[in-house]
Amino acid sequence: MQNFLDPVILFFLFGMFAGSVKSNLEIPPQIGRFLSLYLLMALGLKGGFALAKSGLGADILTPLACAIFLAFSIPLIGYWLLKKILRSFDAAALAATYGSVSAVTFITATQYLDKHDVAFGGHMAAAMALMESPAILVSLVFASVLRQREVAASGFTISQGAVVLGAGNGPALPSLKKVVHEALTDGTQLLLLGALLIGLLTGETGKAAMQPFSGDLFKGMLAFFLLDMGLHAARSLKEVNRVPAALYLYAIAGPLLHALLALVLCRLLAINMGDGILLMVLAASASYIAVPAVLRHAMPEARIALYTGLPLAITFPFNVLAGIPLYAYLGSSVLR
């Protein structure tokens, strides 16, 4: 119950209420984009400042290696499960969405840990960045294999690295090289890593100079952004009405399974409690911005409502309201 009394969470709930009653309350898209960039920049700076203080060591490299392993394994697990109830392209797209991460869920989790005096490393911002792209790459491999299997039946042709529908009569899909480049050079990811590097280089001097920006304003900006997310989550419910009923269960059970996988790895690798909880949160989160933006062009065969509606309307609210406290409880019970 204490988590619901946090102003940040209450603003999210208020946004969901306003959206559900069809209020005309709206955050302009440009403001929402600015808030997203601000939060990533501030998070990267905080991580860089903390990393400058702690330095690099095995206790930092181990969580990063664990993050990379999770980033590749979760979409594989997701595809294996989802292809039993969905057509292959839909399964690959949804597996990519749930295999990637949500920066806002991660940032909300860091605030939860700060509030409860649970220490975690600044390098976890880098872990988040490392986990964003692998799921996209895995899904593109799946899509490429699936298209090759359907060449004869669908009349596809391959031209200069791009797949062309209808033997040259349909729209050309972007080449694999172009999509991979976009995934690895996504602006939000580069901003996070750039801010992390700047924080690392400037250390305590930079921290003191940027405190009003990356410290004092942070929670207010997060509350404003979660208000916007609440509005979007409520309005995404109409998309969820068009997905198979079995996916409602996956939208909750899938993240829980991924979080438990992260917990087992953290226990085996002796990763500390704070870092372990954040790895659980990352594993349980799903991308509702970066991955859908890529998949719209890279995998048009998949139904958009599946990989946009579920993460934002069901998984994101679940994680913010119940998942984060649950992962923190499990982490505190199992990890040191």
* Poorly predicted runs: 158-170
**Class inferred from helices and paired strands:** mainly alpha
Let me know the average pLDDT: 83
Number of strands: 2
CATH class: Mainly Alpha
| Largest sheet: spatial strand order | 1-2
Total helix count? 16
Strand fraction equals under 5%
What pattern of helices and strands is seen along the backbone? Answer: HHHHHHHHEEHHHHHHHH
CATH topology type: Na+/H+ antiporter like fold
Instruction: Give the distance, in angstroms, between the N- and C-terminal Cα atoms.
Output: 25 Å
Reported for the largest beta sheet, the result is: 2 strands, antiparallel
- The CATH architecture would be Up-down Bundle
Helix fraction bin: over 70%
- The Rg value, from CA coordinates, equals 20 Å
Number of domains: 1
Q: What is the global morphology? A: globular
Protein name: Sodium-dependent bicarbonate transport family permease
InterPro entries: Sbt_1
Transmembrane segments: 6-25, 37-54, 60-82, 94-113, 125-146, 183-202, 217-234, 246-270, 276-295, 307-330
Keywords: Membrane, Transmembrane, Transmembrane helix
